[in-house]
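Reagents: none. Just compute today. YceI.
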Amino acid sequence: MKIRTALFAATLCSAATFAAPVKFEIDPTHFYVQISASHLGFSHIPGLFKEVSGAYVYDSETGEIKDVHVVVKVPSLDTGFAERDEHLQKYLESAQFPEATFKSTGWKDGQLTGELTFHGKTQSITVPVSKNGEGKDPWGGYRSGFETAFTLKPADYGAVIEVAPEIAVKVSGEGIQAK
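Predicted 3D structure written out:
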């Protein structure tokens, strides 16, 4: 009987661990900020920011995501063609503005609102977020995964890229429960 009681208590304690909001650190090897921009209307050129960091808090009971903070290193943009990447770094003035950041300010009905700072200018944006999954991973950690997609107009942030007035952004990734 004592063993059953101990097992029941352990089960309750472990469930309580995940019932409260949990902080997750972004896993940079499984977190992607991808972009795609039209090139003169002839094709869409993809790109990937290779250096991303941050954290967020997720409440599995309510589905709320909060305290999101993401840092993207602008010079890490890779479109697969070095000469184009050099041109983009000049347009983006990445030496002067090496980071783009997002800090959440609210969550409602699957919509995450926050302050996006890009090219030195900060604006409020709201993006739809969908949960991909959560659970234990094979290495003993606990993960959650989310994604969003939205359109960014660089000129709204003072970055004029005439050949790409709009950029499609897709963010997809995982966080590992902070220890």
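The longest strand covers residues 22-39.
Action item: order primers for follow-up constructs.
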